[in-house]
Specification:
This protein is α+β, with helices and mostly antiparallel strands. The chain has three domains: 149 residues, 2-Layer Sandwich (Fructose-1,6-Bisphosphatase, Chain A, domain 1); 110 residues, D-Maltodextrin-Binding Protein, domain 2 (3-Layer(aba) Sandwich), CATH 3.40.190.80; 28 residues, no CATH class. The protein is 34% helix and 24% strand. It is built from nine helices and 19 strands. A seven-stranded mixed β-sheet has the order 3-4-5-6-7-8-9, sandwiched between helices. It has a five-stranded mixed β-sheet with strand order 11-10-12-14-13, sandwiched between helices. Strands 15-16-19 form a three-stranded antiparallel β-sheet. Strand 3, helix 3 and strand 4 form a beta-alpha-beta unit. Helix 1 runs antiparallel to helix 2 and helix 6 packs parallel to helix 7. The N and C termini lie far apart (41 Å). The N terminus and C terminus are likely disordered. Bound molecules: ligand LTE5OB6J and magnesium ion (MG) (2 copies). The site of one magnesium ion has 6 residues, from strand 4. Keywords: Hydrolase, Magnesium, Metal-binding. Belongs to the inositol monophosphatase superfamily. InterPro entries: IMPase, Inositol_monoP_metal-BS, Inositol_monoPase_Li-sen, Inositol_monophosphatase-like, Inositol_monophosphatase_CS. It holds the Pfam family Inositol_P.
């Protein structure tokens, strides 16, 4: 099976604007109509991880609208994954969808709620949009073609001096001691640099679009999901920003760790003081920390105390001569 990604991307590119504008315009009306209404709220992974019938309805609406046009494409949707669908990103053309980013805000009528849709081929995001519903701001980017908000070009602040930075992050849905102590100590260490301040809007997608539009200078988080940031990571980089792993290394969309910043200097400054707590990758593969954690010392060697499952899904042992 040879997948001609260039043709598919061009085809989808040719009319993604119309297709998505159509999908978003319907989804937008559903969200706005439901914003003031009473909601039926369910819990997912914690007492703070909320979902409503509107999240599920908007996701179904978007997926069926896109499927009608591109029946062979794949989907990673937040609520489909919650219902058991596989979140593994393959080389196939894949739509990564967060139907309502900021569900807690939506439930409480805190007016920052976004729809996030990204399109990836060969695991590379080709375009993405974030629609901030209550602000009526449509952020969009196409790889190599810049980033825009309501068709106005976006540029990050370009700030290099972290002591002058306004940083956004999220409290997330974790409520265990390790996650919360890591999260709060990260905020403490950042403020002691010092920096100008920290904000949390309640939607990762809008947080990152604030970095792209110079409303903030950086965003960092551990625990969000690929659907929260797939579109906005491209919007930040197309606005001249940088997107890295929380360690300052290479960004990995499925790792649930990110720093998006106005410059590499600011990103490095954040990476030097923030720590990550362990959280399972979106695709369920072992991450580097877990892999090392799975090793024990024996006869002076580091040996794997169980087999690591690698992307090839074949068990294998690894021996590290020295660490
Ligand atoms: O509202 P969601 O789509 O669930 O995304 C939220 C997430 O649940 C929360 O943990 C935070 O990471 C927010 O920044 C996300 O936008
Ligand atoms: Mg989200
Ligand atoms: Mg969501």
């Amino acid at each position: 099976f040879h997948f001609d990604s260039s043709r598919t991307v061009c085809t989808v590119m040719a009319d993604w604007g119309k297709c998505l504008d159509f999908g978003v315009s319907i989804a937008r009306q559903v969200v706005l109509d439901a914003f003031e209404a009473q909601k039926v709220v369910s819990l997912k992974t914690s007492p703070a991880d909320l979902v409503t019938e509107t999240d599920q309805g908007v996701e179904n609406l978007l997926i069926s609208a896109i499927k009608e046009k591109y029946p062979t494409h794949k989907f990673i949707g937040e609520e489909s994954v919650a219902a058991g669908a596989s979140p593994v990103l393959t080389d196939s053309p894949t739509w990564i969808i967060d139907p309502i980013d900021g569900t807690t805000n939506f439930v409480h009528r805190f007016p920052f709620v976004a729809i996030s849709i990204a399109f990836a081929v060969n695991k590379q995001t080709e375009f993405g949009i974030v629609y901030s519903c209550m602000e009526d701001k449509l952020y969009r980017a196409q790889r190599g073609k810049g980033a825009f908000c309501n068709d106005i070009p976006l540029r990050t602040s370009g700030l290099e001096d972290i002591t002058k930075a306004l940083v956004v992050t999220e409290i997330g849905t974790e409520r265990d001691d390790l996650s919360l102590s890591t999260l709060t100590s990260n905020i403490y260490r950042l403020l002691k640099i010092p920096i100008h301040g920290i904000r949390a809007v309640g939607t990762a997608a809008v947080d990152m679009c604030l970095v792209a539009s110079a409303g903030a200078d950086a965003y960092y988080h551990v625990g969000m999901h690929c659907w929260d940031i797939a579109a906005s990571a491209l919007i930040v980089s197309e606005a001249g920003g940088v997107v890295h792993d929380i360690s300052g290394g290479k960004f990995d969309l499925m790792s649930r760790r990110v720093i998006a910043a106005s410059s590499r200097t600011v990103a490095r400054g954040i990476a030097q003081v923030v720590e990550a707590f362990p959280c399972e990758r979106d695709d369920g593969l072992p991450d580097a920390d877990q892999a090392i954690g799975a090793l024990t010392q024996r006869d002076g060697h580091w040996v794997s105390n169980d087999f690591l499952k690698l992307p090839c899904d074949k068990p294998c042992g690894i021996v590290i001569e020295s660490v």
